[in-house]
Amino acid sequence: MDLTQVSASQPKPRPASAAPAGLYDERPFLKRLNAFDWLFALAMVAGAGFALSRYHAFMNYYDKLVLVCSVPVFVVLGWRWKPVRLLIAGIAVLSLFAIQTYQGDLTRADSAFFLKYFLSSQSAILWMSALFVLATLFYWIGMLSRSPSGGAIGSKLTWAAVLMGFTGMMVRWYESYLIGADVGHIPISNLYEVFVLFSLITALFYLYYEQHYSTRALGAFVLLIISAAVGFLMWYSISRDAQQIQPLVPALQSWWMKIHVPANFIGYGSFALSAMVGVAYLMKERGVLADRLPELDVLDDVMYKSIAVGFAFFTIATILGALWAAEAWGGYWSWDPKETWALIVWLNYAAWLHMRLMKGLRGAVAAWWALTGLLVTTFAFLGVNMFLSGLHSYGKL
Fold first, then answer.
1. Number of domain units in the chain
2. Which residue spans traverse the membrane (predicted)?
3. Sign of dihedral through CA atoms 185, 190, 192, 197?
4. Is there a domain that residue 24 lies in?
């Protein structure tokens, strides 16, 4: 049972100072912060100041604004979700070490030991991919054998994969500037880069729900979709040499890309997670692995929250995309295939949420709908690039 529900059920709540251990702390949020919380906030401010002083020449006004605005966001995230602090620190340390090791020479990626085998962008992303696959294996071993150790190892491997993936993305950003100042850009511009982003965002959302609901049983399902993305990433790299850093096409040379694409993929990641939770729901309802999966109410709640968060960010991304389109192409909406399918995705989840809130949508119907939504989202994400052409044709496979 959620601790807030336990606290709310008490007829006469005690003051926080007198509350027994384990009950919800009713003090205002800021008063619950300790010295380590404020030290983390100070470290985030110092890190942003370092980035501004060291790399300001590569930033325009909008880049600096995004960096400054991201500080309070990550501070609150670290306050609310403690494990992410170590992740942020690890990404910063590994990324700065890799940047220092390069010494401004991209060719060192093939000669410096740590770059060649661990911390160049390609090496780090390969480690990410391998760790995600191993995590999937251990989650399934843990669930099928009822072994807490298997799930615990899967969770730690997932955290390690996220660390290496984000490190690879940060180092890839730096590598693009080593190729040339006119080439340098945030690494979210093509299918290779956004598949990495999708994997990382989906994993992060899962890890949050894993801690929040105190269950690792869903890892076996959610990591399957991440492993599928990793499989596509490997195929795409081998068949198309997609891991090579390329200059931005003119349509992507905009600061809008830095906020539109991440918001979009928070939506995609949340929708994918909800679909895999829907699979778990349908299996438990039919008695498959029923004794190993969380209660149906928990699965239903995770599915709902994932769709709600994804829908919020996808809505923001759609609005940002319209503003970007007006700047790039002179109109907010052109019924381009990518735009049309984005609208279909938005309408699908808007209808799901409407039926949930207004009609009490629950159970197998909601799960099947979430799973069907993944097919619609996948076509909007990949199918449009494969089979249709339009203003977004720069994203074709």
1. 1
2. 35-55, 61-79, 86-104, 124-145, 157-174, 186-208, 220-238, 265-283, 304-326, 338-355, 367-388
3. positive
4. no
